[in-house]
Amino acid sequence: MPGMNAHDAGSAGESSGDTRTAQQIIDATRAQLSWMEAAESEVAQDDLQALLMETRGVLEKLAEGNLKLGSWQMVLWQPRWVFATTDAVCYQKITSDERPIGKEKKIKFTDILKIDELDYGEFQLEVAKRFYTFKAPTSQKCTVRLRETAVCSGLSRSCFSSSRARPLASC
User: Fold this and answer.
1) Cα(30)–Cα(24) distance, rounded to whole angstroms?
2) pLDDT at 30
3) How many whole angstroms separate alpha carbon 145 and alpha carbon 78?
4) Integer-rounded Cα radius of gyration of the chain
5) Residue 19 pLDDT exceeds 50
6) pLDDT of the residue at 80
7) What phi and psi, each to the nearest 5 degrees, are found at residue 137?
8) pLDDT tens per residue, range 23-35
9) What pLDDT digit, counting tens, does each position of 43-74 carry?
10) CA quadruple 58, 61, 67, 73: dihedral positive or negative?
11) Distance (Å, whole) CA 40 – CA 53
12) Are 81 and 91 in contact (CB under 8 A)?
């Protein structure tokens, strides 16, 4: 090359080799990051599926329109198969051997305004025009189901309250 000495020519050749090596490193790094992103996404999906499976089970649901007898009120708890999907808490009637039957009813996570943990293993989901009250076999199972529901719904901590803790304001 005119105007270049042997040292300059050698440096030019090395820099193009370094450029290819640097590009190979960049490509390899991008491929590795892409693989890691896919792996993280797969783990997150597996975690979500595991969480959704943990939300499945029989809970009791407080029936609407309880019977009033003078100063007494009859409360009716109905056993229901309750589970979460990626967009809702769902429940269905069950048979005597606890198999889900009938149409599933959905409480969309986007409609839930607040989740309250009550006493005696009960929790309540507040939506615009009503409350859904569910009862778990134990207070511990209630707390677990409640936290799972909150995680699945993506509700912020300010939307979750407990009667055993300081009540939080509505979202």
Assistant:
1) 10
2) 80
3) 18
4) 29
5) yes
6) 95
7) -60, -30
8) 888 877 787 777 7
9) 555 665 676 677 788 999 998 877 777 888 78
10) positive
11) 20
12) yes
Identity of the highest mean pLDDT range in 7-16, 78-87, 99-108: 99-108
Mean pLDDT throughout 96-111?
91
3-state SS, one letter per residue, for the chain = CCCCCHHHHHHHHHHHHHHHHHHHHHHHHHHHHHHHHHHHHHHHHHHHHHHHHHCCEEEEEECCCCEEECCEEECCEEEEEEEECCCEEEEEEECCCCCEEEEEEEEEHHHCCEEEECCCCEEEEEECCEEEEEECCCHHHHHHHHHHHHHHHCCCHHHEEECCCCCCCCC
Distance CA 82, CA 11 (A): 71
Hey, CA dihedral for 167, 116, 143, 76, is it positive or negative? positive
**Tokens for 131?**
């409350």
pLDDT tens digits for 115-135?
888 888 898 999 999 999 999
Contact present, 130 and 113 (Cβ < 8 Å): no
CATH topology of domain 57-162: PH-domain like (2.30.29)
CB atoms within 10 A of CB 48: 14
- C-alpha 120/C-alpha 133 separation (Å) is 12
Q: What integer is the mean pLDDT of 4-12?
A: 49
Instruction: Indicate if the alpha-carbon torsion angle 147, 117, 143, 97 is positive or negative.
Output: negative
